[in-house]
Amino acid sequence: MDARTPSGVSTFNKLLAVLVIIGALCWGLIGFFQFNPVAALFGGDARPAEASHFSQLLYIVVGLAGLALAFTFPWRSHRELHP
């Protein structure tokens, strides 16, 4: 199950990174806009109850970390970028 891509990152690790990024962006939407996209898509209250300032800050930090991971994850190798 360790099918490595040319970048040296396995397909499984790339899948895990995509799932983490999606989850972090969902948390970011909750933190910034009090909007739960999972509940909106699959049923439930899309507007969660009032969160404490600390939990809202935590949601925002995790959302920003997901954005950072999306832009810094080694999706391609340097060999692919600079032939």
Structure report:
- There is one protein chain.
- By secondary structure, this protein is mostly helical.
- The protein has helices spanning 11-33, 37-42, 53-72, 78-81.
- Helix 1 packs antiparallel against helix 3 (53-72).
- The protein starts with 10 loop residues before the first helix and ends with a helix.
Secondary structure: number of strands: 0
Secondary-structure element order, as H and E? HHHH
Q: Give the integer mean of the pLDDT values.
A: 83
Low-confidence stretches: none
Structural class: mainly alpha
* Structural Rg: 16 Å
Number of helices: 4
Give the helix proportion (percent range).
55-70%
Write down the oligomeric state. single chain
Which descriptors would you attach to this protein?
single chain, 83 residues, mainly alpha, 4 helices, 64% helix, 0% strand, elongated
Question: Would you spell out the secondary-structure blueprint of this structure?
Answer:
Elements: H1 11-33, H2 37-42, H3 53-72, H4 78-81
Brief description of this entry?
With 83 residues, the chain is mainly alpha-helical.
